[in-house]
Every structure is written in C-alpha cells, then in structure tokens.
Amino acid sequence: MSDKILFIFIDGLAIPDKIDTNHLSIFPTISDILESSKPIDPVMGVEGTPQSGTGQTSLFCGINAQKHIGRHQYAFPCKKLRKLIEEKNIFSDLKKKNKKFCFANAYNTSYFAKESQRHSVSTWMCIYSNFDFLTEDDLLKDNAVYHDITNKNYIDGCVPLKSPKKAAENLLKISLQNDFTLFEYFLSDRAGHKRVEIDIIKELDGFLKELLSMIPKDIGLIITSDHGNIEDLTSKSHTKNPVPFFTKNLPLDNLPEDLSEVKDYILDALHL
Ligand SMILES: [Zn+2]
C-alpha cells in the first residue's frame, strides 16, 4: 500500500443518474472514474445547493462547514469559514506531524500583486500553513502544474505549453517528493456555469488517463469534488448530485460518506 497521497480536486463534478448516456460519456477516463467511485454527499443536511466555499472547507478541514455556518457559501470563504480553515486545515495538521505537503498548482506572478483578500479555500490553507506558493519559476522547472494543465491560459509571461502527459509526469514527480500533494482543477466548474465550454474537459480527461497509467503503487490517489455542476448542462447552476470519491492504491474500508469525512480518511491512510 502507498505511503503518499495525491489528491486531485475537481471543482463541480458529480455523478449523473446515467453515466453512459450523459454528455460526459465522451470522456472515457472521467466516465470510468465516475463509474468506479463511491458516491458521497455534498449537501450534508443543509438546505440549498452546495457551493465551493463551504464544500471545500468541509473537504479539507474534516467538518460539516455548511452546517457550522447554517448555509452553503459560494467560492470565497467568509470570516467564519476562514476561522475554521485556520484551525482545522489538513496542511497545518500535516505540518504539525512533520509530514511534507505540497499544493502543486502554480500561481500567476500577478496574483500576489493584488490587494484582494478574496482567496479560495486552498489558497487560505497555504497562507495559514505558511506554505511557499509555487510560482512561474516552479512551472518553468517542471516543479508545479498550472491549473489548466497545459499552461495555455497562463497570463503573465512566456511559459511553454505542456502536454497532458508531461503535466501528469510532473505531478507524479511532485507527489513522490511529498507525503501529501494537492492539485486543484476548477475549469470544470467554470465550464458548467457557462454550459458551452465542455470540450475543455478533454484535456482533463487526457491528463487523468496518463496519470492513471503511470501512477506507481506507492502513491495513493484520491479524486473527488465539492458539488455537482458539469454533469448537468440543463442548468448553469450547481447540482445536489452525489460527488465521486475515487481511490487507487488506498484502503477500501471506511470510505467517507460525505465531504466532512474525507480529511479523516486521508489522515488514517497516512497512519496519522
Ligand atoms: Zn461554481
């Protein structure tokens, strides 16, 4: 069994009622992942449609964050959620236990020039755990992966394009150097909101195919999401469908039932 974990977080991807006739069926690897995943609950007893701020806090902090604040909160966490992230995020837990972790996404240089406090949950986790953000320099040295996988949308300068295969190799290289590696892909949620850019998912599909074909036994893989969206193009909104919890090279007992149980599953798998 593995002693390292690679966690691929895909924003806005749930399990549709019928995978084989769903529009996602044109993406073979994503379809296989959805079919072989355990469905887990992103709503968690709170009225309304699940959102990223609360869903991601639940995922990475091991608590029912939506219940904690009494609602589903959209992308950027409010003060109450930030307090939870500060106290309970998985990066800080791993740091306390002397485990090496990495947020493998490279940030644009211009991101840090902004005064804004509107960060996603993963960015807040890096801030609270004093993780050194990966940047363009890491991207150029193949020590980071850009959020779109291929660097096509990199906005600040001249970064060579990467094939999905090379990006998968780079992510596996990073994963071998850390106990826990997180990669976040959010173009899926954007595409779901726009309903028209679904072909962007083909890069994700190719990337996941390469990654699954190359992953060594000592890296445990988790692929999951915070809420549905892209699987249902009849609306531009999130859905209440169960999200996939996919694993490879990891224990199959005690799989989580909802987002709040994912962090404990990871810590158990790392024997912490
Ligand atoms: Zn969204």
Task: Write a short abstract of this structure.
The chain is an alpha/beta fold and 272 residues long. It has helices at 28-35, 52-61, 65-69, 79-88, 90-96, 121-128, 136-140, 164-176, 187-194, 201-214, 262-269, and strands at 4-10, 38-40, 101-103, 180-185, 219-224, 243-248.
Description:
By secondary structure, this protein is α/β, with parallel strands linked by helices. The protein has a single domain, classed as Alkaline Phosphatase, subunit A. It contains eleven helices and six strands. The protein has helices spanning 28-35, 52-61, 65-69, 79-88, 90-96, 121-128, 136-140, 164-176, 187-194, 201-214, 262-269, and strands spanning 4-10, 38-40, 101-103, 180-185, 219-224, 243-248. Strands 2-6-5-1-4-3 form a six-stranded mixed β-sheet, with helices on both faces. The two termini are 15 Å apart. It binds zinc ion (ZN). Zinc ion binds at residues 12, 52, 189, 193, 229, 238.
> What ranges have pLDDT less than 50 throughout 5 or more consecutive residues?
none
What is the CATH topology?
A: Alkaline Phosphatase, subunit A
Q: How many domains make up the 3D coordinates?
A: 1
Distance between the termini: 15 Å
How many runs of DSSP E, i.e. beta strands? Answer: 6
Helix % is 25-40%
Taking all residues together, what is the mean pLDDT?
A: 95
- Unique bound compounds: zinc ion
What is the strand content? 5-15%
In CATH terms, the superfamily is Alkaline Phosphatase, subunit A
- Computed over alpha carbons, the radius of gyration is 17 Å
- CATH architectural category: 3-Layer(aba) Sandwich
Number of helices: 11
Family: Belongs to the phosphopentomutase family.
GO molecular function, one term: phosphopentomutase activity
InterPro entries: Alkaline_phosphatase_core_sf, DeoB, Metalloenzyme
Keywords: Manganese, Metal-binding
